Amino acid sequence: MYRAMPEEQFPIPAPDLKKVPERYYRKQVDYQTSEKVGTLVVDTSNYYLYLVQENGKAMRYGVGLGRAGFEWSGRARIARKAAWPKWTPPEEMIQRQPELEKWSWRNGGMPPGIENPLGARALYIFQGNKDTLYRIHGTGEYWTIGSAVSSGCVRLINQDVIDLYSRVADGSQIVVL
């Protein structure tokens, strides 16, 4: 499940699972909800993302979330999915971290790769037709799963985001609790 993935466009190493609590490993679980099948539910208090499945089941993934001041909640949809996406930091992030200017949209963004903050896959979250600038994405910093470290995005181990990406359709609903 968390093997090295040398077949990827940018080979992904296996994570050191001693650095990830077992409760955050990907797992199919019983999950009762009124949300329809295919909906993503982010449980921010427990650092889980659930993909609602049939018959009271869900695929559960451990996640890293937004640190204090960067949290968000609400309903939205997955408007786009990308494998090995380019990353362009939002202007607000560049204001906080001027060294990121080199990756701004004006400079073409950061090319895909293992060092790219979006990791192996990204799911783009929109409310209506507006990009929230939040993403569900992979990370090579797998030891951050189960903590509040991002600028509001939902981070998964690269192997988990690849699995999730293969299961989620464009237009899927997302609920962040």
TrEMBL record:
Residues 38-177 form the L,D-TPase catalytic domain. Transmembrane segments: none annotated. Belongs to the YkuD family. Keywords: Cell shape, Cell wall biogenesis/degradation, Glycosyltransferase, Hydrolase, Peptidoglycan synthesis, Transferase. The active site is at H137 (proton donor/acceptor), C153 (nucleophile). Gene3D superfamilies: L,D-transpeptidase catalytic domain-like (2.40.440.10). Pathway: Cell wall biogenesis; peptidoglycan biosynthesis. InterPro entries: LD-transpeptidase (IPR050979), LD_TPept_cat_dom (IPR005490), Transpep_catalytic_dom (IPR038063). The keyword Transferase applies. This is L,D-transpeptidase. The keyword Cell wall biogenesis/degradation applies.
